[in-house]
Design a protein that fits this description.
globular; alpha/beta; 14 strands; Rossmann fold; about 15% strand; about 325 residues
């Protein structure tokens, strides 16, 4: 029997509710309805008075979470879509992120952001917000790309005393499956070498890990060995693993689904150049979604985001330098 990515998220929440009385869930339609994507299906019945429906006010949801976390609870907040978290931006970056710095009192809350695009979702339900939140000191930003990480990184996020932005990718919810939730368990802040190689390094995260692996497998047919690094978290960012990989390959392509301007890929390239310029045999490159709002039409959406084809093309240009 296989376990899906969203099964892992639900099982992690059930385990947390079962084992830690400080944990509660709060979000729009998550109790009776089980959430927009059914990530909390059945949990309100299994854990009475621990799973609560919220008003349609992301600002109020995060305000409540900050207050209860200050008082010792460990809230998990579900945003229906990552895009909607901008309504709670003040609570997240001006209250939660700064509170420990200002007062010495931690704010251990976790915000689940259903992130990234799916065909037909359009500009209001497809955004990747990780770069925005990673900009602010005090926040941890995680981006699980596997079933095991979806499970273990949620457990680890709730255990942290810092506020965590947990970016779960909607495209992986039911497509990505594994035999078990118990894969290798790395700590938050440590990247993983998904596929070893020697000719070029692809650094990526979230759903793009799988697209990068597909691109690498296609290039393998032509004799190229592409190393794929899954960052797993973008704040903290594991540059030691990135630089070690670039030292082996001499070439870097950073791939992300978010918009290109000032994003995670830009940070990876900038820090590689400043900390590992001597390791490079070619100018480092990055590939992101196009710098436009996310289109509705499935064919336009496919052309908007990186794909195995566009990643492969970028790698061939890099390899030919």
């Amino acid at each position: 029997m296989s376990v899906t990515y969203i099964d892992a998220i639900r099982e992690a929440q059930a385990k947390l509710l079962r084992e830690d009385p400080r944990v509660f869930l709060y979000g729009q339609d998550i109790a009776t309805f089980g959430g927009a994507f059914k990530a909390t299906k059945g949990l309100a019945q299994e854990f009475p008075n621990r799973v609560f429906d919220a008003p349609i006010s992301e600002d109020a949801m995060l305000g409540l979470a900050v207050g209860t976390a200050i008082e010792g609870m460990r809230p998990i907040i579900e945003m229906q879509f990552a895009d909607f978290s901008s309504i709670a931006f003040n609570q997240i970056v001006n209250q939660a992120a700064t509170h420990y710095y200002r007062t010495g009192v931690p704010v251990p809350l976790t915000v689940r952001l259903p992130s990234g695009g799916t065909p037909g979702s359009g500009p209001f339900h497809s955004q990747s917000m990780e770069s925005i939140y990673a900009h602010y000191p005090g926040l941890i930003v995680v981006t699980p790309a596997t079933v095991s990480d979806a499970y273990h990184m949620l457990l680890d996020s709730v255990a942290l005393d810092d506020p965590v932005i947990y970016c779960e990718h909607k495209f992986l919810y039911r497509w990505l499956k594994a035999k078990s939730i118990n894969g290798d368990h790395l700590p938050i802040g440590q990247a993983r070498i998904v596929r070893p190689g020697k000719h070029a390094t692809v650094v990526t995260y979230s759903a793009m890990v799988h697209e990068a692996v597909r691109a690498a497998e296609r290039l393998h047919e032509d004799g190229w060995e592409i190393e794929v690094v899954d960052l797993r978290s973008v704040k903290p960012l594991d540059m030691d693993t990135v630089l070690a990989s670039v030292a082996r390959t001499g070439r870097l392509l950073a791939v992300g689904e978010a918009f290109p301007w000032g994003g995670v890929t830009a940070e990876v390239v900038a820090r590689t150049v400043s900390e590992g310029f001597h390791l490079l045999d070619a100018p480092p490159q990055r590939l992101n979604s196009r710098d436009t709002p996310v289109p509705y039409h499935p064919k336009l959406w496919a052309a908007h985001r990186p794909t195995p084809e566009s990643i492969g093309e970028a790698l061939r240009r890099l390899l030919s330098f």
